[in-house]
Amino acid sequence: MTRSKPIIDYTAYLAVRTFVCIIQAMPLSTCQAWARRLGWLFWHVLKVRRGTVEENLKTAFPERSPREHEQIALGMWEHLLLMVCEIAHAPRKINRTNWRTHLAMPQMELMVRRLLAPRPVIIISGHLGNFEMGGYLLGLHGFPSHTIARTLDNPYLDRWINDFRGATGQFILPKHGSSQRIEELLKSGGTLVLLGDQHAGEAACWVDFFGRSASTHKAVALFTLSGNAPTATGCVYRKGAPMHFEMEVAGLVDPADADFNLGSIPLLSTWYTRGLENLIRVAPDQYWWLHRRWREPPARQKKLRAAEPSDPAAARPAA
């Protein structure tokens, strides 16, 4: 079995490469049409993770009707499938001379000023919009970044995907064993991009997300506080046609500011989680509702949260 694993992995790698070649040979308009059809198939016929998606949408948008939930779910599937096509086409279609055709960034001056400064910068995003294009587009502008991601079990696919990410300067740090490299990155004034909407288990920081308690990784906030790093929450929306994006910043805080009042892991975690929630509400059909974001906190955590005083002002994203 061990001897056959490299053969199985390489066969899977060749199958994926062949599939990507087919996508690259198709116009993006055709890719979008097929994404819509396949999205309908995944939702109505195959019912892939349908129960999880329905439960998540009821939690996030209890005021909306089942019909509205279905429209969001169908839009999500079309978005996810089209996202794969955009990633496949990106190296051939977006470059340093035509990026303005594909990307708008209303807060460009604010972010460029921060990225050019000698201090570290942390950008917290989520599974919203085309999150894979965020680091790719930053690198295209001459701002390299580092992202923490799980190493794929298939080494051929892992190397190929990381080659795509690193083509413009987006470097991947393994999920485990990177603490020393992250510390060095922040000390050197680098840029760290993190996903802040992943379930972190019971021994995590529990904050409100769409009105329900959700587990978040303490390390996300800890990097900001320990590295004294300006931190932004943002995403890359698709705007209109495929391969047209808008990089949006929901909020920016700086631990060095005199009025910085988010000096603890719970307060900072609440701030960036609320920022991500606000971004999701703008385009809920571009969010990844497939994963189980909400799970019951342990009983002890429930008691601690019930005893904590509420502070709505501290949870609002800073401008």
From TrEMBL:
GO terms for cellular component: plasma membrane. Keywords: Acyltransferase, Cell inner membrane, Cell membrane, Membrane, Transferase. GO terms for biological process: glycolipid biosynthetic process. Its main location: membrane. Its EC number is 2.3.1.241. The keyword Cell inner membrane applies. It is found in: Cell inner membrane. Residues 298-319 are annotated as: Disordered. One of its GO terms (molecular function) is Kdo2-lipid IVA acyltransferase activity. Pfam families: Lip_A_acyltrans. This is Lipid A biosynthesis lauroyl acyltransferase.
